[in-house]
Amino acid sequence: MSSNTMSRILLLSSVGIGSYFAGVYIERTNKQACSNDDYVKSPAGDYLQQKLKPKPGLPIFGTVSAASPIPASGDLLVQSNVSRVGQIMKFGFPGLDNVRSYDDYVLSYDRRTRVAHWVFEHLTADRVKHNDAVDRSKCDFKPDESVHPFFRSLNSDYKGSGFDRGHLAAAGNHKADQKHCEQTFFLTNMAPQVGVGFNRDKWNSLERYVRKLAKEYPNVYCCTGPLYLPRKESDGKLYVRYQVIGVNNVAVPTHFYKVVVMETTDHRLEMEAYVLPNQKIDEQTPLTMFQVPPETIERAAGLLFFDKIARSQLSKINGKKV
Q1: Predicted structure pTM score
Q2: Which of 16, 59, 156, 202 has the largest CB neighbor count within 10 A?
């Protein structure tokens, strides 16, 4: 055996032995520093593992963890947010991909398109009524820094694109608190929408209609999102084509959907489902023209809406008795 080989063996051996004794020392030090309450003991008195302390935001409301940043203090605030998420998602999650929970709405973010898969809201008359303390003009569009920089959309992506930063969770649905309104301006809640004739007109009409429902029913649950639907082209084949904007290639949806469940005072459930094309729409066209069976949206979006509600539990779908 050469002298070089022997030197390497001795070096590796010394590193291994040193690491072992360092590990033993650190483990003993940690045990001495921790109270008995922090660790689980074996019958022989040995420390087996550190106890897992409950943390808000880990799956404590059933199916998915809240993705809001957890403050270092103020557990009551965190628990309140978790409780609110439970209210919003009462009838189930459409999907569990990159879920983000804000104070008054929840969304699932598509990192590939830079547009949400879905946005969920729970609306009541108190939450949508006019509030002098809430000023939309003080709200700024801003990137959501909880999303990795590779997958964020930016204000610069929309600049000069010809598209509006269209809300999925409408700002007008969140008037209970200024912070709630401000959080609807995260770009994770935006999608490129045609401005005149759609975002500022027909889509806005649908949003106002949903707020009207919130004043007529004790509880309204609203799920909104984008669709990328195929279209037959000149060769007779179907293609899914959509534009992208900005350096981050933010997808421009071909259509948008809303699926709404209304809960009556006697706890009956009614559902309405809409799909609108992302284009200028004649304002005289009634919203009922855009009603579709909810399962068609589920197939197109790859999502299951309100999966905790059997269709047989619904008293009406799109205004018709089930």
Answers
A1: 0.76
A2: 202
Structure tokens, 112:
């590939």
Identify the CATH assignment for 75-321 out of 3.30.420.10, 3.30.750.24, 3.40.570.10, 3.40.630.30.
Answer: 3.40.570.10
- Cβ burial, residue 239 (10 Å; 0-12/13-18/19+): exposed
Both tokens assigned to 27: 């483990």
The question of whether 174 is a catalytic residue gets the answer no
- Could you say which of 122, 130, 148, 167 is catalytic? 167
At 198-233, the pLDDT tens digits run: 999 999 999 999 999 999 999 999 999 999 999 999
Q: State the amino acid at position 20 in one-letter form.
A: Y
Looking at the chain, list the stretches that DSSP marks H as alpha helix, in order from N- to C-terminal side. Answer: 3-33, 75-88, 125-128, 155-158, 178-183, 202-216, 294-301
Confidence (pLDDT) at 63: 34
Measured CA to CA, the distance from residue 115 to residue 256 in angstroms comes to 12
| Higher-pLDDT residue of 14, 200 | 200
The helix/strand/coil state of 63 is coil
